[in-house]
Structure of Sugar ABC transporter substrate-binding protein:
Amino acid sequence: MRLRTTTSRHRYPGLVVGAVAVLALSACTGSAEDAAADEESSSDAAPAAAEGGNDEEGDQVTIGFSAPAADHGWMAAITNNVRDLAEQYPDIDLQVAEGTNDVNLQISQVETFINDGVDAIVLLPFDGAAMTPVALKAMEAGITVVNVDREFDDPNAARVTVLGDNYGMGVSAGQYVCEQAGGNEDAVVAEIAGIDSLPLTQDRSQGFEDALSECGLDVDARQAAEFTVESGEEVAAALLQSEEKIDFLWNHDDDQGVGVLAAIENAGRDEFVMVGGAGSANAMREIQDDSGVLKATVIYPSTQGADGVKLARLILQQKAMTDLVEVEVPRLVQLYAPVVTGDNVDQYIDSAFES
């Protein structure tokens, strides 16, 4: 029997749940006898609760996964983490489509999943708007859709949306710059963004600008790259040539940051503090080494696809997130964007992706 879930056609704005555990505490009052009875009852029930946990093997579920081509380290880590997660659960039959940056091909992949009758589709769209109609088609066919990273135009196109915090990345980077500037409102701030046409890039830039405004700073020079090493090096070289003085540089993406750092080294510039984005392992090693301009990076989790698969499994098996009191998986899960510095890099480096 195929597993299906009921799909609501109503919108639920504002349901944002951080990927930080929520601990619910309950209290009760009563007589000593009642308390003893409760304690005995809880003790008896504890093993059964442990045995019936979310990780216990359940009904077999077939989950299709599609994402863009792994043309940089973060995207490669997305799919690798999905595969690694599925291997931990014998009740997951994972079907992975070949990564593609061709929207029409990705639409075809989802249509194949629909025709094959999968139970759920976890989809990181190359273009969220373009993939919305086929995601709606899947939902209308009774297939649970989990939208990852790049949002659909219509929230009804997914049962769950798993997002990084792009705006929060910009805020975190801007707040770090403000702290390091120490009240110097004359500090020169530069920014190397990702693909400007993507909403995620726009959100990162807006968060950065908003945070800087709180300490009297703004972005004095800005260039957009394409999330690749080559574009990062080319854009950074042009920026460094045009700007004689920089105090702080925020680069949105650590994959393109490999090229940015190469351009900085070639230019012989070391007068500024650089902040990275996404949280790659090589960026964190640079931070640990503390011998160059890169002093911090802002996490953008590469676990989002794996989180999507795990949530799809819970929905299909009619389970919930056990650290929440709510008995259903939330509609929106947004992950946190912490700043990694030399002080806390050891906490994050083991789960970082390789550029």
In short: The domain at 58-164+302-319 is CATH 3.40.50.2300 (Rossmann fold). The chain has eleven helices and 13 strands. The longest helix spans residues 32-51.
